[in-house]
Amino acid sequence: MANVLLILPELTIFLAAILVFKCLILGLSVLHVWRVAFAGSLLGLGACLITLGMTGEPFHPGIYRVDLFSQLMKTVIAAALVLVLVLSDSPPVMRRDAWRELPFFLLLSSAGLMMMTSATELITLYLALELSAFPVYALIVLHRDRRMGSEGATKYMLQGMVASAVTLYGMSFIFGLSGTTYLSEIAAALPELGSQPLFWVGLLLLLAGFLFKLALFPFHFWAPDTYFSSPHPVATFIATVSKVAAIAVLCRMVAVAGWNEASIDGETLRIVLIVLAVAAMTLGNLAALVQKDFKRLLGYSAIAHAGYIVVALQAFSSLGHTAIVFYTIGYLAMTWICFMVACEVGRNRDTVPVSALAGLWQRSPMLALCLLIGIFGLTGLPPTVGFIGKWFLFSAALEDGQFLLVLIAALNSAVAVYYYMRVLRVAYLLEPAKEDTGILAPSPLVVTGAMVACLVVLWMGVAPNYFWEIAAEAIVALGATY
Amino acid sequence: MGIPILSLILLCPVLATAAVMLVPAGRDQMVRWISVAFSLLALILSAIVWMAYDQTVGGLQFEEIVPWVPAVGITWHMAVDGFGVLLVMLNSLVWFTGVLTMWSLAYRVKEYFAFMTLLVVGVYGVFMTQDLFLLFFFYEIAVVPMYPLILIWGSTRKEYAAMKLMLYLLVGSALLFPALLAIYHVAGLGTFSMVELGRHTFGIEFQKFVYPFVYLGFGVLAGMFPFHGWSPSGHVAAPSAVSMLHAGVLMKLGAFGILVVGIRLLPEGATYWAPLFAVLAACGILYGAFVALRQTDFKFVIGFSSVSHMGIVLLGLNLGVLGVASADAFNGAVFQMFAHGIMTALFFSTVGYIYDKAHTKTISDFGGLGSQMPRAVTIFIIAGLCGAGLPGLASFWAELLVFLAAMKTYPILGAAIVAGLVLTAMYILRVFQQAFFGPRNPKWDGLTDMVGWELLPRAILVAVLILFGFFPNLILGLIDPTTQILMEGF
User: Fold this and answer.
1) In angstroms, what separates the C-alpha of A430 from chain B's closest C-alpha?
2) Three-state SS sequence of A314-370
3) CB nearest B152 (choices: A383, A398, A429)
4) What is the pLDDT of residue A264?
């Protein structure tokens, strides 16, 4: 029974998905299906909160670990899922017959993502990765514009498949060298493994699948295209929920390999990560400068942010990991806010060009203010979490003496100001275009979600202590395992 | 600890921002009254702080310490020394008079006052905090609202100016980012408290390496030559009260940052680099004055005069570090921060008034304006004479102290700058002559002069300039103990 309690969050979300599937078979209306899914996600969030303090291994020892780290990440995933579902209530940009299926796929993918955060065995991890990926491939195809949908889905799927194949390949190296798929045993064998270059090659290949989800250079090509051509709520899901799980796995794998005193050759991995981070930040920011589509711009900004996160990841320290967990929570809220605005403004549009935001201050002052907070957050300006989060991320790198890397990262943030401010300029200065002068009135649920997200962004930015402490405790729990 | 009066002052603009945003749409008058009420309250509190500050003791007073993020050593540590008291007062004065200056604004009033008070929050925070992280935090808060303020309510190439300003300042911040973090990690004390970091002695090589980042990072905001390009164009494009805050207090943040982070924490680095930066500052003084001589737009003249006058502040700071006449140099620099703040606020407030009436800022369009707008012109002339360093006005003492220090430290440089003073007089008198005196231009006969409450903000600023012009000891007595403490660090 105690074991069931440990996996309550995954179980709730999974059962909710099955229930929604049943509703689909029974032919319930869109609204009812959505309500069931929304209630299920709320229950899932509740279950996460209940299990937040628990620790244990619900299955065969060593394959699946429930601790504060995994449960915190699951809570974040569940909260983000609720927020995405808020936007997924019959979006016109999807095929009409797909409206009912949207919540089902979102729930199913979230269950997989939650499992990823707990998996401590390579095969389990791989299965969870696949479970989370497939429903999203299906969702992108369900765009109302068939050509756009299939193009976006193909791009995402092909690259995703390649990335997960590479992951599998890396796993085979590690298994071949260590003879085990359990992370705990790999960690124990590190003193021997760490001196073998092949192990680090294997680890890097293994990380590829997760760096892909994070959209880090050189696995970033999909991000702008997929954000652009996915239905808006699906893009929101990809940009928020699935990032969390990828970050969780990266943190866990690096904690296994990098924190160990014996792993002298970890330096190689670190150099690779530094190069990737610099490339991702620079490329993401420079490419974003010329984007005309809002979602595409956010895609490039996501690449840059993946770079910022890896700046802290390569420090291989608990400060770095804590900063990442902290930043992830805030990043999620800011990104969701920006996508929420994209969803609302682009409700009846296949794409959301930046120019569609014109006159937002007249059409909906509330959305304009949200956009201001979200964009300030992504730019890294106070009093939002973007500022303090970046401060923590870069602080981790500097603790290690990486002055130049932090300087590059900080200059990158300054470059980014240009395109972020351009978005605000359109929203705050220009008059609305002729064809869309109407007042935008988001539903009360969206307004509530937006208020919560803005509150989180500002709260974490001004009084970060509570979130910082819980992130630090989670990292202690993670570090204690290995 | 008693009443946390500094936090109360900081709370005034925070509450004002929140209150303004909650006002229902269309109630513009209410927004104005809320702003003026809170700014008046802050002004009164600042005056109380000034009165209550114990000048015989000096040093940090009114301390408030609350752990903020204890795990990484961030503390809500508010305290002011003599410099802080003076600059908090400056900010209160400029905020209060700025609100009154913008009383007649009619376009998107609510958003305007919300952004403007947010800027004020940041400025207060920088002047009060003793925590390195919070200093940077408030510094950025002060910079950010400039973008929408210039973009939406500005004039003359506002989009260009707003973006230019933002990019310059945030590149400056990007230089600060690694530098401040490095100071924290290299000290290894696990705290951002500048008091404790100040007691730590950093290695000389580290100081030499990191000081230029701090100086350049903050220096961009202080209008440091040759990175001043954003400043004149930003001044010109911004609406009047934003120009007032921008030139009056925002640029002081940069100089203040150099003082409290650069000079106080990294004294040896500062000494090493001071000759170079002193020469650059002197270049700024002369360059700003030369360029101002050729401008055709009122606001550009003032914008470049700001570059020139902020050069005096930076020169004073660098001379202070060199130690030949430290007390004069530091006192002069800080005095100049205050005097220049009030003076530019007065300039922009008055030019804003003339522009609102005449809808032009081109000097040659006017001529003989003195007979149509005698009061506005008189006020402008007082500000101008203050800029030229006329005895009896506040700037005189500030410039005198810095020039004395310059003469003692580098006689040749000092002589060059004193020659620059002649240039200042030239560009100011040129404006007087072309715009205010000479034959009456009938085109402007219809303009109405300042009346009643319109005079109020300008009169306050004029009174302040004259008061400290005649009684400089009111300021010197306040800041000198702090200067003495600062000099012990060398």
Assistant:
1) 9
2) CCCCHHHHHHHHHHHHHHHHHHHHHHHHHHHHCCCCCCCEHHHHCCHHHHCHHHHHH
3) A429
4) 56
Of A319, A414, A469, the CB nearest to B174: A414
Contacts of A361 in chain B (CB under 8 A): 111
Give me the mean pLDDT over the B260-283 stretch.
92
Q: Is A394 on the interface with B (CB under 8 A)?
A: yes
Which chain B residue is nearest to residue A431, measuring alpha carbons? B152
Report CB contact under 8 Å: A394, B178. Answer: yes
Nearest to B182 among A398, A465, A472 (CB): A398
Chain B CB within 8 Å of residue A459 CB: no
Triad B259, B260, B262: Cα angle to 5°: 65
- Residue A196 has a pLDDT of 82
Strand partners, A353: A293
Are B184 and A395 in contact (CB < 8 Å)? yes
- Min Cα separation B55/chain A (Å): 33
Q: How many CB pairs under 8 A join A and B?
A: 90
Q: Distance between CA A65 and CA A275 in Å, rounded?
A: 32
Q: Model confidence over B29-52: pLDDT tens digits?
A: 888 999 999 999 999 999 999 999
Kindly provide the ipTM of the predicted complex, given to two decimals: 0.90
Give, rounded to a whole angstrom, the gap between the first and last alpha carbons of chain B. 31
Whether residues B177 and A410 touch (CB distance < 8 A) is answered with yes
* Mean pLDDT over the full length of chain A: 89
pLDDT in tens, B413-466: 889 888 888 889 899 998 888 888 878 888 888 788 888 788 889 999 999 999
pLDDT top residue among B278 and B24: B278
Q: Could B147 and A376 be called an inter-chain contact, meaning their C-beta atoms sit closer than 8 Å?
A: no
Q: Is A473 on the interface with B (CB under 8 A)?
A: no
- Candidates B170, B206, B209, partner chain A, best to mutate (most A CBs within 10 A): B170
Tokens 């470059």 belong to which residue? A415
A20 band by pLDDT with thresholds 50, 70 and 90? very high
Nearest neighbour of A421 by CB, restricted to B133, B147, B152: B147
Reading the block at residue B285, the tokens are: 């003084």
The pTM assigned to this predicted structure is: 0.93
Domain edges within chain A: 2-481
Query: To which H or E segment does residue B67 belong?
Result: strand B61-69
Per-residue model confidence as pLDDT tens digits over A208-225: 888 988 888 888 888 898
Q: Are strands B74-80 and B61-69 parallel, antiparallel or unpaired?
A: antiparallel
Kindly determine whether residue A411 and residue B174, on different chains, have CB atoms separated by under 8 Å: yes
User: Looking at residue A266, what is its pLDDT?
Assistant: 67
Q: Is the pLDDT of residue A263 over 60?
A: no
Query: What backbone torsions phi and psi does residue B362 show, to the nearest 5 degrees?
Result: -80, 125
A398 and B CB contact within 8 Å:
yes
Give φ, ψ of B131 to 5 degrees: -115, 130
Q: Within 10 A of B296 (CB to CB), how many other CB atoms are there?
A: 12
The kind and range of the H/E element at B78 are strand B74-80
Longest pairwise C-alpha distance within chain A: 68
Suggest the residue from B157, B173, B186, B227 to mutate for an interface test with chain A (most A CBs closer than 10 A).
B173
B128 in Cβ contact with B84 (< 8 Å):
yes
Select from B159, B174, B177 the Cβ nearest to the Cβ of A425.
B159
User: Residues with Cβ < 8 Å from A1, sequence gap 6 or more?
Assistant: none
Q: What is the pLDDT of residues B305-364, one digit of tens each?
A: 999 999 999 999 999 988 888 888 999 999 999 999 999 999 999 888 888 888 888 888
- List, as one string, the DSSP characters of B200-245: SPPPHHHHHHHHHHHHHHHHHHTT-TTS-THHHHHHHHS-HHHHHH
Amino acid A171: pLDDT: 93
CA distance linking residue A419 with residue A410, whole number of Å: 16
Token pair, residue B190, equals 């696990």
